[in-house]
Amino acid sequence: MLQHQPVTPLPKAHALTRLVAKLDRMIALATTSSSTITRWRLILFIVGAICTVALYKTGWYQAGNGSLIGFVALFLIVAVYHNRLESRLHRLRLWKQIKLVHLARLRLDWSHIPARPSNVPDHHPYAKDLDLVGPHSLLHLLDTTVSSYGQARLGFWLLEQPPKPDQWHLRRRLVQELIPKSLFRDRLGLEAQLIGEQEINGRRLEAVLQHTVGFPHLTTVLAIQTLLATATIGLGLSALLGWLPNYWMWSFAPYALIYFWTDQGEELLEHAVGVHFELEKLGAVLGFIERHARPRRSALAGLWEPLLTPGINPPQLVRKAARTLHAISVKAHPLIHLAVNAFCPWDLWFTYRLQQIQAQVADNLPTWLDRLAEVEAASALATFASLHPSYRWPTPLTADPQRNGTSAKLLVKELGHPLIPETHRVSNDLALETLGTVLLVTGSNMSGKSTFLRTLGINLCLAQAGAPVCAGLFEWTWLRLATCIRVDDSLEAGLSFFYAEVKRLKSLLDETADRSNAPVVFLIDEIFKGTNNRERLIGSRAFITALSQGNGFGLVTTHDLELTDLDKTVPGLRNAHFQETVAAGALQFDYKLRPGPCPTTNALRIMELEGLPISQGKTGEKVIDP
Asked: How far apart (Å, rounded) are the C-alpha atoms in residues 302 and 309?
């Protein structure tokens, strides 16, 4: 595990704030320079026009010509410099926005973190429970990707666990390699934004490339038109030189008929523009990555190697597509379009070229999008690691069933929730070292039980995705994750809350019964809260006993203190609790996990503090006054 001294986010926030202030100063200077140059361009135009006209009026035509050429040349030089300055100003503004978003990620300022649509997969065992997808989620916080495939790959790393160990090690090597390359990571997004705000949509690009170009027997018609055009030019030259009569009309007539018969009108131009529009941003991003994937023995170079093959190199194919588009764009100028097609089968030839390039791109696009998605997802995790230098790199362990009879382990210290601001975050320790271990967590309302379950689950997802975790120590063997924290009834499916909970718990229990895969870490909040006290106790005892006999370990929270005596009959069960104190007439929580059953309850106290009618019973217990 990489060791480093803890660094609070505060210096990181100060560094980002200073950089944003520096960018503001650079933008202000560039804006002032641009305004000054705009005025000088106007002055140059007016002075140049006055001098040139005055020289012509006085009859000094040669001096007038020299003045015109000189002022035009000077104006063009100033205009080129001005355009470069405006381009640099635009890049600075985009870069500042990227840094402001980084600052928002660091401060968990959700309103200033761009939110892209992301759907929670139906029936996923833990995505909704752990706030992995959706607004104000882990994916929302991490997502710096520029393509739909990149976002999907990042989500896949969080949602499909555990990964294959060899893939995970390659992934983490790439993430760690990209951490010091902050400029590379920022420019990856910057290069895409310079082309346009719209994301690189892989499905849309695939749909455009699947559109058929041309018509049947295009190659044959192109060959015929080429022969007819060659014959027309040869016969036309012979007629001009007086060698032959005007036989060229006999070859030009069928050439013209075939041209009008095969003309695709504006459809070809629109399709070519669509192909170029979709490929332009992809080509810019892939070309940028390629320029930085040259150093040998780097993880990025190894990942990018298949895309460096001559002939199928992405930037090369995109440049070919751009040249083909420019040639087809002649259709936007009717007179020029007719003239070039009168001499040669211009449209047919470039339709054929577009067809070839489109087929080449379609064949290689899956590889391009796959490697780009890998770099984007790794870059997102690297940005997360860079913004949180105090987070530790987790250490994966190899399961050893022969050692103490254990085949799974999860050991964490100073574990905190990455979606809770550091000023409010409370850290805890936990050790699960034997299959069948069930940590029964009791505690008062609002004491932190549910948050602790999510803290453990979300950090495990980060660890198995290849990212650092919000902890001082995190060691684990590869684990499957199953949760039952948020349960909703479904009117559409006709499910009550209790029945939906039962189905979730049955699915979780089935996961622990599977011994052919990695062990399960289960996180269950308020077990069987959808039924009455008597049946809840009976069902909970049986369910927890069954969990302790399965291929997994985990945590179960409950308000039922009667369940704490299960440690006498279930060997793997341990009790722990969260508690509160009352000070100055108010409840206070420290959110610290302690061993043993919870010694206090607070439901009646909360009712009393909120003004609900509470009276004393015969035994001194507080009950609701009827």
From this structure: 13
Token pair for residue 519?
């062990």
Distance CA 270, CA 331 (A): 10
Residue 100: Cβ within 10 Å count:
16
What's the Cα-to-Cα distance from 546 to each of 205, 509, 520, 571, rounded to whole Å?
A: 50, 8, 14, 12
Q: Is the dihedral of CA 181, 185, 186, 187 positive or negative?
A: positive
d(CA 398, CA 475): 10
Q: How far apart are CA 246 and CA 235, in angstroms?
A: 7
Whether the CB-CB separation of 411 and 475 falls below 8 Å is answered with yes
Mean pLDDT of 165-186: 94
Find out whether 530 and 498 touch, Cβ atoms under 8 Å.
yes
Helix (H, G, I), strand (E, B) or coil at 624: strand
Whether residue 542 contacts residue 527, with contact meaning beta carbons closer than 8 Å, is answered with: no
Confidence (pLDDT) at 553: 96
User: Rounded CA gap, 555 and 432, in Å?
Assistant: 9
Structure tokens that stand for 362 in this block: 């379609």
Residue from 53, 126, 16 nearest 464 by CA: 126
Degrees, nearest 5: CA angle 513-516-521 = 55
Say how far apart CA 480 and CA 239 lie, in whole Å.
83
pLDDT-derived band at 241 (thresholds 50, 70, 90) equals confident
Q: State the pLDDT confidence band at 447, using cuts at 50, 70 and 90.
A: confident
Q: Which three-class secondary structure state does DSSP give residue 217?
A: coil
Q: How confident is the prediction for the chain on average, in pLDDT? A: 86
Q: What is the pLDDT of residue 250?
A: 87
d(CA 624, CA 626): 6
By the 8 A CB rule, do 482 and 127 touch? no
| pLDDT single digits (tens) 222-232 | 899 899 989 98
Distance CA 253, CA 247 (A): 11
